[in-house]
Amino acid sequence: MQPYIRPTYPFSALVGQPRLKQALVLNAVNPRIGGVLIRGEKGTAKSTAVRALAHLLPLITVVADCPYSCPPDQLDRMCGSCRGRLQAGEDLPLQQRTTRLVELPVSASEDRLVGSLDLEHALVEGQRRFEPGLLAQVNRGLLYVDEVNLLDDHLVDILLDAAAMGINTVEREGISISHPARFILVGTMNPEEGELRPQLLDRFGLVVEIGGLKNVRERVDVIQRRMEYDADPEQFVQRWSSNEHHLTEEIAAAKKLLPQVQISEQDMAAVAMLSLELGVDGHRADLAILETARTHAALEGRTTISLEDIRVAAQLALPHRMRRQPFAEVRLDEQQLSDVLNKAAQERQRGNEETAGRDELKKA
Predict the structure, then answer these.
(1) Above 70 in pLDDT, residue 243?
(2) Catalytic-labelled residue, pool 100, 182, 284, 294
């Protein structure tokens, strides 16, 4: 007899924490944003939100017998085996399933994460045999790392490299194997238990700071909803099913629209101006803001980026990258952000007027 497994708490039933939910949905639409790190004290629904997000992700079609869940219609995202079979004219077996959620324990070893090579089999049989790890299981899925600040720095480096490159490479004793590893990366941490090194913090596309709710009404809502869920999980989930379905459709529609969203030179100039004015080192921030802004535009149903899209993206992608003194907390100056965006809006208007003037001269 199978043990009873309670249904996952609905994402749409979470109370408050709008920035947390926004960052998660943006990454669900576009994993190229680079993942999200959620920083907050214990008991602030970090893990609940991440697990709930997995249930909003759409069904995916995979090659049924592939350990990497390869997409059957995207040659450039296939593993070498599936690509070879397809090019040889083989009909690949297909399967439709939910997007996979994989949780990485703090105690995980490197071999558990990246996979390992069976050297004994290679020596005896003369053939390489790869034992896939968690990065193989999570391809095209959601990888959740709780207490990422307690994970070995070396493993965090591997995770972030794989997330950025979309490929996992394992090299042992002169043997090298690579496979696709494209996934949504979500890490959570309690700052009271230690910080991530700045170099690792910078590699997360977005960072969200959350805390306990300060509004009495919201805290009462949390209590009531949790008690209702504990009393009858199935009925509670059913009550929120319409909201969940609506969110799933929003994410799917935004994913479809995303390739059509254009980034103009004016958008790039506005983002570059922001990074310079706010004292941000490097260029990761610029790329993260633009990727997030175009994703926000897709969620809004638009194919062009507005300055409001850039504002939302900057609020999520900039604070953890700004220069600060040791042990000092960084807060994004909203007034300064508004001033820079207003300046960018004026530059954009001036550029549009000059373009319109040149077009009129050509017509004349």
Answers:
(1) yes
(2) 284
